[in-house]
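User: Predict the full complex structure for these chains.
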Amino acid sequence: MLQKVFYVCVRIAVLFLLGLNVRRRDLLPARGPAIIVANHNSHLDTMVLMALMPLSRLKDVKPVAAADYFFSSPWKAWLSDHVLGIIPVERGRKDKHSDPLQGCYDALDAGQVLILFPEGSRGEPETMTELKKGVSHLAERFPDAPVVPVFTHGLGKALPRGSFLLVPFFCDIFVGKPVTWTGDRSQFMNELKDRFQALASEKTFAPWE
Amino acid sequence: MTLATIHWVLIGIWALLAVASAIVFTISRLSGKDMSELVQRTISWWVMVAIFTVAFLVSNTISIIVFALISFLALKEYFSMIPTRRADRRVLFWAYLSIPVQYFWVYDSYYGMFAVFIPVYMFLFLPVASLLSQQTEGFLRAVGTLNWGLMLCVFSISHAAFLLILPATPDNATGGPGLLLFLIFLTQFNDVAQYTWGKLFGRHKILPGVSPNKTWEGFLGGVVTTFVLALLTAPLVTPFDLVHAAAAGLLIPVAGFVGDITVSALKRDLGVKDTGSLIPGHGGILDRIDSLTYTAPLFFHFTRYFYY
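Assistant: Here is the predicted structure of the two-chain assembly.
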């Protein structure tokens, strides 16, 4: 309930302040188990991707985020858990016995949709960095779950890392065809990288330096 | 009486739209070619006319807010399209903030401030806001492009809203709303007329280096059509006598054409086809209001000089 109210407000803000130009929205998976893989530029990324999902499906859409950031204080943890619906992942874990992706496995088992940012960090706005391999582990374990790449542009301009001032920009969202599991992790990662490159080159963006 | 005239004009616009739609749908059914874009464009016209009519009938204040929103969307489109500097994020934010301020002057009928706020105060303020980042590389380009966008999307368009609050006169009982209707209707109709004449009879290119699809036949056909329509409608909604109606009937199509090719030049420089994708079949909002960026201020001062 709280989540729905929150995302209705987010939707209105996203539509008014940003304005989205979504290509091939129909390729977004409505039902799980499925994995949405997006590039990461801004805190807005999660908000926008959640805003693209149907309201009735929201409780089964789970962003995956760093435990050390989003669960660092009781306040943040409550918000991340109850409102944003985040699945925490330990970065640079010390305990080698438990699998850091266990929360993701459970969610996929339960037929939920994961939102994953394999770059790991927002980094420099509007530049993509190396993709982390965690997503290939998920794909290996759930070979039938579609892995849908989503490339976003403009959100890093609107709200880059380290800034609290939201400046309106129209944002482009490019949804790609799902990547299928072929049995090899590095092959899968290469395929995913190529897919992102293809999506990013669909449009020439105005320089922003 | 006042209400009646303006209502009749609105009804006339809806009727015209209905006839035009019927023609478009019939042609698209009969012809084998793919006309989905034209159909899409016609549907978008219904939505735009509906929004405009509702705002218009509810109150002047709502109409002013609608124009402020149009300015906001246009400026957002412009800023998203042009190269900007990360260091200027704050400057863009100030530029956006000037929109509510500028439209407040309209709401407040404060003509003196309305006329200088952007060309004087924002013009002087934006470079200062920009240099505070102490990043001088690209400073000139940034300040130049930001100011031009502000003039085009906010200052120019706000003149349409200022027409609204011009009072009724003995010659023109419909007052400002009538003048606004006259401006918007003729500007948009002229766009369609130039496009249609060009499609039907276009042979000789007018400025192929800027906009390869514009022809002399389209331009002149549009001017003549709009001119005739201006003479017919001026007695209903404006205080103009025959000479001024004729002058307005030339000013609007010519200025509209110039506004159109100005935005075309901008798009060509940036290498984009449309300024956005907000209005299905039309492109972005700047694609739709490009002619208005020239007709609104020119028509406003024409009217103000001769009648107010």
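Chain A touches chain B at residues 19, 21, 125, 154, 157, 160, 163, 165, 167-170, 204, 206-209 (CB under 8 Å).
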